[in-house]
Amino acid sequence: GTGWTAVYSVGEKPSTIKQLERSIIDIRSLCGGDEIEGNAGSNYRLVTATGNIPIYIAANQPRMLRLAGRVADGVILMGGASAEFTAWQIDQVRRGAEEAGRSMSDIKLDLWAAIGLSDDREQAVDEVRHWVASQAESFNKWRELPDFLLPFEHEFKTASDAYDRLEHMSQHAGHVASVSAELVEYLAFIGTADDCLAQIRSLEPLGLDRVTLAFRAGGRQQRMEAIHQGIIAPLNVPAT
Question: Model-level pTM?
Answer without folding.
Answer: 0.89
